[in-house]
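Hi R.,

Here's the chain you asked about this morning:
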Amino acid sequence: MPGSAVQFGDGFEIDRTAFELRRAGRPQKLERIPLEILFLLLDRRGQLVTREEIIEAVWGKGVFLDSDNSINAAISKIRQVLKDDSENPTSVQTVRGKGYRFIAAVTEIGVPELPPVAVTQPESRAESPKVDLPLPVKPSAGIRWPLIIGAVVLLGGAAVAIVLTTSHRKPILTETDTVVLADFTNTTGDPVFDETLRQGMAVELDQSPYLSLVAEPRIQQTLRLMGQSADARLTPETAFEVCERTASAAVISGSISSLGSQYVLALRAKDCRSGRLFDEQQIQVARKEDVLHALTGMASQFRRKAGESLKTVQEHAKPLEEATTTSLEALKAYSTGVKVQNTSGSLSAIPFLKRAIELDPKFAQAYAYLSRMYGDVGDYELSSEIAAKAYELRDQASDPERFFITAHYYIAVTGNMEKAEKTCSAWAQTYPRDKAPHGFRAGLIYPILGNFEATVGESKEVIRLDPNFPIGYSILTSAYTWLDRLDEAQTALQMASQKGLEIPDFPIQRYDLAFLRGDHAEMERQLVVAEKLPGDTDWIYSRRASALGYSGHLQEALKVSQHAVQLAQEADQYERAAQFQIATAVRNAFFGEAGAAQRSAIGALAISSGRDVQYGAALVFVLTGDNSRAAAMASNLEKSFPEDTAVRFSYLPTIRALLALKQGEPYQAIKLLQAAIPYKLGVPPSSYLGIFGALYPVYVRGEALRAAHRGREASQEFQKILDHRGIVLSDPIGALAHLQLGRAYALAGNKDKARSAYRDFLTLCKDADPNIPVLSQAKAEYAKLQ
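And the predicted structure, written out as C-alpha cells:
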C-alpha cells in the first residue's frame, strides 16, 4: 500500500488521510471537485485519464450535469494553485481531445502517527467515555466530500467537545429500518433555532443512502391517531411513541442551550425496540455561526454509530453550510415553509420560501422547493424561472438535493423527459430508499412518454417506500385510468381512504372515473366534496365545464369555466386561469364555434403566454382558419422549447400537420406526424389542468388519412381514441371521434358501421345547444346515409 501522503513539484504535498493539498506545510485552497480530480490523476500518474473516466469517477454514470465545463474549470483551478502552465506543463498535461495525464515526479512519504487527543468534557460530567475513532482511509475516486471524524473540531478557532457513549461493533440499524427525528429542544431564548436544527439534521441525514427518516405525512397521520394535532411539537417522548407506532428502529432527539456566550448542542439516539441509548453526543461551540457546522459532525458520527459504512459517509457528507445555507434565519424560514406545506398546502408555503431566498439569495434548495410549490399551484412559467435559478446554484446543495434540482430542471425548464429519466435512474440507484426519483418518473416523466405500465410500477414503489404519501396513490389511480383499468383505479383511491389520506386530487379523480362510467350522480357528489376542500375548487369547476362541453352543452360549459378562471385569478394563479380558459377555446374550436374560440384564446394569451397556453392557442387558430398566426406560434414554441419532449413529439407535429391539411396536403401531414409515433399514447402537460392534447397526433392522423381517401386506415386511428377513453377523458376529441369514425366508415363504403358511429355521436349530443356547426353537419351527413 502506498504511503499516506505524496510530495511532488515545488514543495507540494497531498495528505491522503486529511484529503488536503499543502505547500511547504501550509494548506492550499482548492475546492472539492478539483481536489477529487487531482487525487484521481495522482493515483494514475503517468497514465492517460480520459474525460469520460473523470466524469464517472467524480459525478457517476448517467448523471446529466454540466460536467464537461466543470472539468475544464477544475483543471484550470488545479493549474492556478500548482502554478502550472498549460502550454508547458510540469504537473498536469492535456492530451487533446482525450483527457489528462499527471507527469510530475512523485515521492511517497509516510505520515507520522498522531498522538492521542484529549477530549474536553463539560463540567456536568464526572468523566468522559472513550471515543471510538475510525481508522484513516485512503480517499477513493468518486468521494463527494472529505470527512474527518475526531474528538476535537476547530470552528473559527473555538474548541468543540464531543462526548459519546461506548461504540458498538454490530450495526444498530439495517438498510430496511426507519428513523424518527424529533424536534430539538431550544432553551437559548433565541427563536432562530426553532425548527432550524431539526431541518438541518434532516438535510444531513438525508444525504445517507443507508438511512431513511420517517416522512412528515406519516408522522402527521400517526400524531392524529395519538389524538394530537398534525402539527404538534415532536418532543422526545412524543417522537418515541411515534417511533413505536410506526415500527421504526430508532429515534433521534437533540437540544441546544446557552453556556455563557457559547452554545452547547446535544444529540441522543435511542433504540425504539429495546429503549437502549446507543449514541450520545455533546458539542460546545463558541459562536452561533458555528452551530450548523457542528450539526454536520454530529450527523456523520451518528451515521457511523448506526452502522453505515465509512465509505458512504465519506462520499455523501457535504457540510451543512455548503449543502443548504450559511444563514440560520434563511434555514428557519425554509424549514417553516416545508412544515406549512405539509400541513396547509403548497400555496401557504410560498411566502416562507420566498423569505428564505431573500435572506440567502444563494440557497439552492429553497429555490428548488419554491419552484415545486409554484408548479403545484399551476404557475408553470414562474416555476420554470425559479427552477433555472436553482440549477445555477446546484453545486451548493447536498447530493440528493442536487439530483432533485437537476431532474426538476429537465422537467420544468427544458422539458427534456429523456434526460430527466436518466437522471432519476441514477438518483434511484444512488439513493434506493428515496421515493422522490420514483415519484418523478411515475408522475411527471412516464405519462408524457406514454409508458403507463412503468407508471404503475413506479407509483407502487413510491407507495412501498412511503405508504402514507397520498401522491403515490393519486399517481397509481391515474396510471390505471390511462390503462382503462377503472376498477383498479377505484381500488387505489380506496386504499388511500383506508389510511385516512385525502388531497384535492382525489375528488377530481373520482369525478373522472364517474364520468367514464356515466355515473352523473357520483359526479355531482364529488363536485360537492371538492367544493368543501380548501384550495383547488377552481379545478373541479374546470372539470365540470369539460364534461358539459363533451356532450355539446357549450354555453353552460362556458359559464362554469369562467367561474373557474375567476377563482384562479382571485388566488393569483394566472397560469392556471389561462389554462382553464384556453381549454374552453379549444373545445369551441373543435365544435366549430370559431368566433367564441378565438375570443377565448386571445383572452387566455392576455393572462399568460406559457407553453401549454401557446399550444392551445395555436390549435385554436389553425382550427378556425388563422393559419399564419398558428404557424408563428408553432415557430415560437420550437424556438422557446427546443428540447421539450411534449413540444417535439406532440405539440409541433400536431399543429404543423393541421396546417398541412388546411393547405390541402394530407400526405405531408401524415409525414409530419411520423415524429409523434414514439410517444403517440403520451399524456402531455396540457391535458393535466385543461384536458386537451392527449392523442391529438392520433386524431389528426385519422383526419389526414381520411383527406387522403384512405377510409379504412382512418377508421383505425379514430377507433384508437375510443379504445383509450381513460387517456382522453372529457377532451372534445373523445366525442368527435364517433363522428370522425362514421365519416371514415362512410368513405370506406361500410354504411352500416358508419350509421352506427353517427348514431353514437348524435345520441351523445342529443341535448346539446342548438345550431352548433359540427352537430348540424353531422345531422345532415347522417340523413344522407339513410
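The longest strand covers residues 250-259.

Let me know if you need anything else.
M.
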